[in-house]
Amino acid sequence: MLAASASLLNVNVVILDVGDSAPAKQIIAPRNQDLAHIDGSFADPAKIRELASKVDVLTVEIEHVDVNVLKEIESDSEANVVIHPSPSTVQVIQDKFVQKKHLRAEGCPVSEFIEIESTVGSIQATANRLGLPFMLKSRTLAYDGRGNFVVRSIDQADEALKALGNRPLYAEKWVPFSKEIAVMVVRTTSGEVVSYPAVETIHKDNICHLVFAPLRSRDPLVASRAQSVAESAVKTLRGAGVFGVEMFLMDDGSIYINEIAPRPHNSGHYTIEACETSQYENHLRAILSLPLGSTALKVPSAAMLNIIGASSSMDSINAFVSTALSIPGCSIHLYGKSECRKGRKMGHVTLTGDSDASVRSRLRPLLEALPSGTP
Ligand code: ATP
Ligand code: MG
Ligand code: MG
């Protein structure tokens, strides 16, 4: 989606990812040999250096990259490459425990969390301190809830350690939120921030399932408060680009930050059809020091539904897509991933409308057509 936006601005893009037909590489064909995409891992220092040698501006679409190499490239004046967001920001964010400590130190609202050792004893001590249930989280390499384990009883300590493997862990107190919300924030190279409207995000099995824009709430000030919490948090980070700020909204109207993604984010996919400028275009504008586009909604209501694989078969995805094709005004985005897997994001659809009712009535058949959970 970033590559698609770049092509409309005549911005050449070189992509580093594994395989010749990685999803982003299907979008932009190299203009010449110098701009050929790179086959390799975004965690491979040599490949990251190769990418840096080909570009003027380097950005990331995933935080699990080799950040030490990015730091070396950033400080190498001969490399002459600008990196956004700053590698130091990616470093803070890629360790969720360090990220939480950073936010707390900067005065951003976060709920209680503590350091934990990967032992049964430490998990049991955490249950005494935080109460049950609590959320055990992997500090690193987490996405789509793969790295989270809800500890409901102290008997689960062994199971939790097995599930999260040998990764470094920390624990969060359970947050009994009334809603999950998110705000996409754009930060310019000169440090100004602007935000998109607040949205409601609905997760299923720890994976973002649905997004409704804009956020509806009894208290009309909640949405602007969420924007200001998100903007303040992003102001504490260095470098330009789009940031996805995930938050918990409590019954009493208070807001906690769950986590920040230093990149375009699925809670901002709706911006492609529903806002004046998409999160992708604004990410590019921000990292290229171009004027930002308006973040305003251009429709009264929108919904985004992720298409998540139910098994290794594409059949249920194809069946869903044939329903989506029959829904008026349904925008389909399939990601061109070569294999389907249970729990894998294979694409998304967006609906926009003149009212929530118009969006919800067309959403219903899409929800019914979703790939079922049966393998
Ligand atoms: P992402 O794909 O967004 O990066 P992730 O793997 O980093 O996900 P989190 O965002 O930490 O995981 O958690 C996933 C979901 O689990 C949250 O959106 C929320 O629904 C739930 N969750 C996370 N932390 C807590 C908590 N402390 N209390 C209650 N629910 C939580
Ligand atoms: Mg995350
Ligand atoms: Mg998350």
UniProtKB/TrEMBL annotation:
Q: What is its EC number?
A: 4.1.1.21
**Residue intervals of the ATP-grasp domain:** 100-288
- Can the keyword Amino-acid biosynthesis be found in this entry's annotation? no
Gene Ontology annotations of biological process type? 'de novo' IMP biosynthetic process
Q: Which UniProt keywords apply?
A: ATP-binding, Decarboxylase, Lyase, Nucleotide-binding, Purine biosynthesis
Which reactions is this enzyme annotated as catalysing?
A: 5-amino-1-(5-phospho-D-ribosyl)imidazole-4-carboxylate + H(+) = 5-amino-1-(5-phospho-beta-D-ribosyl)imidazole + CO2
User: Part of which pathway?
Assistant: Purine metabolism; IMP biosynthesis via de novo pathway; 5-amino-1-(5-phospho-D-ribosyl)imidazole-4-carboxylate from 5-amino-1-(5-phospho-D-ribosyl)imidazole (carboxylase route): step 1/1
Q: Which domain of life is it from?
A: Eukaryota
The GO terms describing molecular function are: ATP binding; metal ion binding; phosphoribosylaminoimidazole carboxylase activity
Similarity comment: family membership: In the C-terminal section; belongs to the AIR carboxylase family. Class I subfamily.
The protein's name in its UniProt record: Phosphoribosylaminoimidazole carboxylase
- Portion held of the full protein: 1 to 375 of 566
